[in-house]
Amino acid sequence: GRNASSYFGNIEAYNAKKNSWSELPADPTPREPGCYAVIKGELYVAGGDNGSNLTLNESYNPKTKVWTTLAPMPQGIDYSGASAEAGGRLYCFGGGSFPSTAYNNVQIYQP
């Protein structure tokens, strides 16, 4: 997320059974809207913006509580749509370079 002057990497998890929130280890790359999805129990975060469009791709393993840097995206984007399919691919739809450029492509990551 972001406020007027800073980007944040804070991550919180909601437990529906306990109706409570808990703080997780922060994303090492503070950013605002990127491409997010859960694949096989891990959180994947690709792209986003922290002053410029990012190609960075990272995953978070909740069992080990460790962030891992992965292969970068071909094109940096923010404000993209995201989806994960049963085969385990991360799909990042569209996005762009806010506020001037919108992309009509799909970038796919296979863990």
Written overview of the protein:
The protein is an all-beta fold. It contains no helices and eleven strands. Strands 3-4-5-6 form a four-stranded antiparallel beta sheet, with no helix packed on it. Strands 7-8-11 form a three-stranded antiparallel beta sheet, with no helix packed on it. Strands 1-2 form a two-stranded antiparallel sheet. The chain starts with 10 loop residues before the first strand and ends with a strand. The mean pLDDT is 85.
- CA-based shape: globular
**Main beta sheet strand tally, sense and closure:** 4 strands, antiparallel
Straight-line N-to-C gap: 25 Å
Q: What is the H/E order?
A: EEEEEEEEEEE
Number of helical segments? 0
| Overall pLDDT score | 85
Q: Mind telling me the C-alpha Rg?
A: 14 Å
Our estimate of the beta-strand percent is 35-45%
Q: Tell me the helix content.
A: under 10%
In summary, what is this structure?
This protein has no helices and eleven strands. With 111 residues, the chain is mainly beta.
Helix/strand layout:
Blueprint: E1 11-15, E2 20-24, E3 35-39, E4 42-46, E5 57-61, E6 66-69, E7 81-84, E8 90-93, E9 96-97, E10 101-102, E11 106-109
